[in-house]
Specification:
Length: 341
């Protein structure tokens, strides 16, 4: 889409609460042998022995509490920060690791969190390890970031919680570790060909964002993001364009948005096109991301009509290196007045 000058948006954080709640659930599933207990009750029920055996058999499914335990949160974005806050409220000690921690997300962290300088340092003393990082392919990426070095450093009884992406975990290395350390657990929201039937693994069918509230929040955020882009040219939550916004347009002005290749001289060529059409620029902004540059320009409408703006848009679009352009007229009655002249 970038080469066509089309922004692609996502909805970061819209499902954060839903996933966070499932992470908390995962900690309980990994601690209390709840699934094993449910399955045992089914088996007893089939034989008609549930009332007779339930009190005798419950000792088979002993567990531990979360309070006082240590949680390592790897990745402190929307979900990681929310998980850290709720874990603190449950009485847990929280450690965090995120080499790309933003100021915005840092402000959302609990004050008691202990930030670590490396992943190995974060996980080695943790009772629970929550993965909340994106999956990035290639050299320096996060493919199998939880590999032999990390899993071998985990303490006895540690529970790995993967509600981010299945590919973050080296399944072969983790299976070997679980085989050798029966007290450790793996709780994931993704299928796994090696661990699907492992007695120390609990795999869920990607339920993280599957709530009515999360779907509504994502739809609302997507609609608001697209509306802002269409009405004002604002770029936020884009995966391929730079975040960009200008103040409200001055009176008697219209807004042009121009997407170009990120090469020297493009802004000068755009400004020359406006000057050549005798259009005065009131305010403008230029932002870039990778190979794409995004320009928002407000121009004075005094003494000009729709035809003039269309003509300069055509000139700009024909410039070498321009990928797309758009005119945002804004107020509908202004357009109607101009068309009625």
């Amino acid at each position: 889409m970038s080469e066509l000058g089309i922004p692609v948006f996502n909805t970061p954080g819209a499902n954060a609460n839903a996933v966070k709640e499932l992470v908390i659930c995962g900690m309980l599933l990994g601690s209390r042998r709840i699934v094993d207990g449910i399955n045992h009750m089914y088996a007893l029920g089939e034989r008609g022995e549930q009332k007779e055996r339930v009190e005798k058999d419950k000792a088979m499914f002993g567990g531990r509490e979360l309070k006082g335990k240590t949680l390592a949160v790897v990745g402190l974005g929307h979900i990681g920060a929310a998980t850290a806050r709720d874990a603190e409220q449950l009485g847990m000690h929280v450690m965090g690791y995120d080499p790309m921690l933003s100021i915005e997300n840092a402000l959302k962290l609990p004050r008691s969190i202990q930030l670590m300088s490396g992943m190995l340092e974060a996980v080695k003393n943790a009772d629970y390890i929550s993965l909340n990082i994106p999956y990035i392919k290639g050299e320096g990426g996060t493919h199998h970031v939880i590999g032999e070095e990390i899993v071998s450093a985990m303490k006895e009884g540690a529970v790995v919680l993967n509600f981010a992406r299945g590919e973050l975990v080296d399944s072969a290395a983790l299976k070997k570790h679980l085989d050798e350390n029966g007290g450790n657990r793996y709780v994931s929201d993704f299928p796994d060909d090696l661990l699907w039937n492992h007695p120390s693994a609990i795999l869920l069918p990607h339920l993280g964002a599957s709530t009515e509230e999360a779907e509504d929040a994502a739809a609302s955020m997507a609609a608001e993001t697209i509306r802002d882009f269409l009405e004002t040219g604002t770029i936020r939550n884009s995966v391929n364009f730079p975040s960009t916004s200008l103040p409200n347009r001055p009176e008697n002005s219209i807004r042009f948005t121009v997407v170009t290749k990120n090469v020297p001289g493009m802004l000068a060529h755009i400004s020359e096109a406006f000057a050549g059409s005798n259009l005065n620029i009131l305010q403008q902004i230029n932002q870039s991301r990778g190979n794409v540059a995004y320009n928002v320009v407000d121009v004075d409408t005094s003494g000009h009509g729709v035809v003039d703006f269309k003509d300069v848009q055509e000139k700009i679009t024909m410039l070498d290196g321009v990928l797309s352009s758009r005119i945002i007229y804004g107020v509908r009655n202004w357009v109607c007045q101009e068309l009625g002249r």
